[in-house]
Amino acid sequence: MKTLILIVAAIGLISGCASTAEKKSTEQAYLIIDVKGDSSIRDLVLDTVVSSVEKSMDSLTVSRGIPPQELPEKATRFKLTSPFGNSSFGALMQSQGAMLKLPSCQDPILTMKSDDNEHELGERTSFFVCVVQYQEGYHVDVYTTFEQRSGGLSVDALSQSLAKSLVGDSSQVIPRTMKGIESDLADENLETKIVDQYIPKKWKGLFVDEIADATGKSTSL
Q1: Of 164, 160, 144, nearest to 152 (Cα)?
Q2: What pTM did the predictor assign?
Q3: Chain segment 28-62, per-residue pLDDT in tens
Q4: Are strands 110-118 and 137-150 parallel, antiparallel or unpaired?
Q5: 22 touches 146 (CB < 8 A)
Q6: Which of 117, 107, 186 has its CA nearest to residue 141?
Q7: Where are the beta strands (DSSP E) in 3-106?
Q8: Quick one: CA dihedral 195, 199, 205, 206, positive or negative?
Q9: Quick one: which of 57, 65, 209 has its CA closest to 138?
Q10: Which residues lie across from 196 on neighbouring strands?
């Protein structure tokens, strides 16, 4: 009897998935944290950011730089640029639905990159973190992407659907990592403030504390 129930359930699952088209979606998010202070806290800021990000990553590339000869009056912000520019190949990639842009920072004193593929879930999560120093302190920029494949009818698609129903998707690491960086810096008695952010609505519920937005007002994510 149990075998029959399992067969019926499997047929129902396959039937439900048979009409589902395969879909690939990409979400992006970023967070910019301001840390007030002079050069005396530089090592503390960098060490705290590295140790915080390491908690969430299976693999991580860390590069430490040096401050610019003259610190800028205002902190620079990360930029996204296409490696192909306005070339015909770049246009072809866009026509195929690809949004290939790479993050970079000007004169960073710390850069970290992580790229995690969850093949069994059909997901890929990337993180880019940079720290830049300016006259009044530091900016910690966090940029992340989350790619997800769903639908279709195959053994892999069915196993991915089952896995996600049991454990959820791996995008949960994004808000947890972002909030962790801000919290760990604050725990070191550093003066921190979130000055800019873009968090997709579906992830906001995982921010359990209220944080300040770019206008200085308190907003619950």
Answers
A1: 160
A2: 0.73
A3: 999 999 999 999 999 999 999 999 999 988 889 99
A4: unpaired
A5: no
A6: 107
A7: 23-36, 61-64, 79-81, 102-104
A8: negative
A9: 65
A10: 32
